[in-house]
Amino acid sequence: MATIGKYCKAYPMQKLQQFSQWTENAGNTRKEKKEVDAKELEINRELTDDEFLYLQENYVVTDGIFKDENIIFDNVIPEWIDFCKNILLFEIPVYEPVQVQTSSSGQGIGKS
Fold this sequence. Notes:
alpha+beta; flat; two-stranded antiparallel ribbon; 4-stranded antiparallel sheet; 112 residues; single chain; 6 strands
């Protein structure tokens, strides 16, 4: 079953390709339905420079929001992490916990 991570960010492929050691597993792209000779087939979609890919919280690049499916790039080396942080400005946000307040009468906000 596919796993959605806590955070990912979409980048145009041409931006990711600026990394000097970029390689892509184009055979791992999402499937598209196409009609060929009156038959509907599922084939891997072609990646172009205008496509968006997803940089996951673990620095793996995917063709979709799931961090463990359609992996296009997974050469997570220190140089890649540095590129992501300093060139792509990829930063995983830190979310503060939300405190839910109730009124002093013990009733929730908006209740009468």
